[in-house]
Amino acid sequence: MKIIVTNRKLCTINFLDKIEQCASENPCRIILREKDLSYNEYSKLYFKCKNICDKYNIPLFVHSFFDFALDNNIKNVHLPFNLFKENISKLNNITKGVSIHSIDEAVTAQNLGADYIIAGHIFATDCKKNIAPRGLGFLEDIVKSVNIPVFAIGGINDENKHLIYEKNAKGYCIMSSAMK
Asked: Is the alpha carbon torsion for 164, 165, 167, 173 positive or negative?
């Protein structure tokens, strides 16, 4: 299963055209990760992307802007671990994804009610230049430590994505390759 994580700054074509292209490839979800926007800018962009995703029946997840999700009765959010942990009491009846970077974070996220986690970064990636990847052993340890779906992120491509499944991850996330 593939998750698309957005970064409009990486796009070489119009961002909404890129969303259309990504949605047409049938990922299991798209996460709108545009953290530099204001609440209002994010809101406008979200609803434009939602119209596109709805055409293809692809769930669109809010990233970081959980207040926006709550204000608009949006039931799909993805949060960085600390933001998730600090605001879990506000996230009832919502599908919650969490980005984690350790076994402790994975277990805590599961115990607090995360529906899935994204673990990374697994391979070297331009998004995390000069930071060593955590590797496949890390991914395997995360998968073994929780009972919720684990998706891998970081440097995943057509040549190495099979390795993710060999570690029993549910799937993988792509950002750079999807946006470029």
From this structure: positive
C-alpha distances out from residue 96 to 147, 148, 174, Å = 15, 11, 19
Identity of the amino acid at 156: I
Which residues in 110-141 are b (16+ Cβ under 10 Å) and which e?
beeebbbbbbbbbbebebbeeeeebebebbeb
Distance of CA 102 to the CA centre of its chain: 16
Question: What does the DSSP assignment read for 68-117?
Answer: HHHHTT--EEEEEHHHHHHHGGG-TTSEEEEEESSHHHHHHHHHTT-SEE
Q: Could you read off the pLDDT of 48-83 as tens digits, one per residue?
A: 999 999 999 999 999 999 999 999 999 999 999 999
- Write the Ramachandran bin of 95: left for phi over 0, alpha for psi from -120 to 50, otherwise beta: beta
Domains of the chain: 2-172 (3.20.20.70)
Taking the model in full, what pTM does it have? 0.96
